[in-house]
Design brief:
CATH superfamily of the largest domain: Transferase(Phosphotransferase) domain 1
Low-confidence stretches: 2-20, 40-57, 59-76
CATH architecture of the largest domain: Orthogonal Bundle
Strand order of the largest sheet: 3-4-5-7-6
Protein name: Pkinase-domain-containing protein
Largest sheet: 5 strands, antiparallel
Domain Protein kinase: 85-356
CATH class of the largest domain: Mainly Alpha
Number of domains: 2
Structural class: alpha+beta
Binding site for ATP: 118
Biased composition (Basic and acidic residues): 63-72
Number of strands: 11
Helix content: 25-40%
Shape: globular
Strand content: 5-15%
GO molecular function: ATP binding; protein serine/threonine kinase activity
CATH topology of the largest domain: Transferase(Phosphotransferase), domain 1
């Protein structure tokens, strides 16, 4: 959802990231995450961009007032700052839109509530109908979801100038992609905790008939205490309604190329649930290795993927996965990254695996469950 955080590793300490945001193991064997709180992390480039954006917003507000006086059809629309406070700090940007932090102070001037406002950008050749459908689809799905590890969109607002905005609770720890970028790679305890939270979120989504179809580190938001929330439902699909007994199949390829399951490159229909399981394995390996295993799961084009297909059949196995010290972990990752979707475990089966059963969630994740 926050496609790419605008806080760079250099601006935030880079190599000293662990000193600022330590991962701490407690005496009783449990652990805690203390990620950088993005409410105070704004770079100089952000400051300049936000200054320019504030000038632009002021002009927009002037135009809105003018439109209202002249009987513009926008007069019935609501500016997000009227409901959720003002804010110009850019905390994310990507192809689909920009995300900014907004603060709203209560009447008695107590602690301000923080929101993440994602404003969808309309493409230069995109029709208003297509733009509206794209902007509202994520809200229609996410607003109905209720789970600790799934981000809930609180509101959908159409700004006076016509753009649609999603309003979300602010995850002050950034996203998993930025954490990996700053850290290089994560240790087993930390990565395992995030993986189990991801699996819990995916299990819930599938239980209510929703396939995400775009799981990647950029779409996994974090609180500063280490609670993981799945976001970015722009490509999500309802594969089963409550009154249906059988899941519907889907076609086509969507998502980010390194995390796309191999069956999506083939012509034909497929179950969307295994498509969500595949990137779970890719995300875990990115956390542990600090890099992607391959560029695309294409057995005729990507040499690293071709090597994986051959090595997974050998007793010696695939080297990056074999470097994982936990045998149960290796077995589960191999199962998740099975090129045959029918042989991949479900999210419930992943959680029931010996490896996941022995994973202990962080204090914050356990408290939220």
């Amino acid at each position: 959802m926050y496609d790419q955080l605008s806080v760079s590793p250099q601006a935030s300490g880079g190599e000293n990231f662990r000193q600022k945001a330590p991962f701490r193991v407690l005496p009783d064997g449990k652990h805690e995450h203390h990620l950088i709180n993005l409410r105070t992390e704004v770079t100089a480039s952000d400051t300049l961009r936000n200054f320019i954006k504030a000038i632009w917003q002021k002009q927009q507000d002037h135009n809105v007032d003018k439109d209202a006086r002249e009987g513009s059809p926008f007069k019935s629309k609501v500016a997000t700052h009227e409901k959720y406070g003002r804010g110009s700090e850019s905390i994310g940007y990507g192809r689909s839109g920009n995300v900014r932090l907004s603060r709203k102070t209560s009447l008695n001037n107590q602690k301000a509530e923080c929101y993440a406002i994602k404003e969808y950008r309309r493409g230069p050749r995109e029709t208003m109908r297509a733009y509206r459908n794209r902007s509202t689809s994520s809200f229609c799905i996410s607003s109905c979801l209720r789970h600790t590890n799934v981000l809930n969109i609180l509101d959908l607002v159409q700004e006076p100038h016509g753009n649609y905005c999603d309003v979300m609770a602010f995850c002050d720890g950034g996203n998993l992609a930025t954490l990996i970028l700053r850290s290089g790679k994560l240790g087993a305890l930390e990565a395992d905790c995030f993986f189990k939270q991801l699996a819990r979120g995916v299990e819930y989504l599938h239980s209510v008939g929703v396939a995400h179809r775009d799981l990647k580190p950029e779409n996994l938001l974090l609180t500063s205490r280490g609670v993981l929330e799945i976001a970015g439902f722009g490509l999500a699909e309802c594969f089963r309604f409550p009154w249906e007994a059988k899941a519907r199949v889907t076609t086509g390829r969507c998502g980010s190329i390194p995390y796309i399951a191999p069956e999506q490159y083939l012509d034909g229909e497929f179950d969307p649930r295994p498509v969500d399981i595949w990137p779970m394995g890719m995300i875990y390996m990115v956390m542990r290795a600090g890099k992607l295993l391959w560029g695309a799961a294409l057995k005729h084009k990507d040499n690293n993927y071709i090597t994986y297909l051959g090595d997974r059949k050998l007793p010696s196995g695939f080297r990056p996965i074999e470097r994982l010290q936990n045998e149960n972990c290796r077995s589960t990752i191999y199962a998740i990254l099975n090129p045959s979707p029918s042989r991949r475990p479900t999210a419930s089966q992943v959680l029931a695996s010996p490896w996941c059963c022995e994973i202990q969630l962080c204090k914050a994740g356990a408290d939220e469950s």
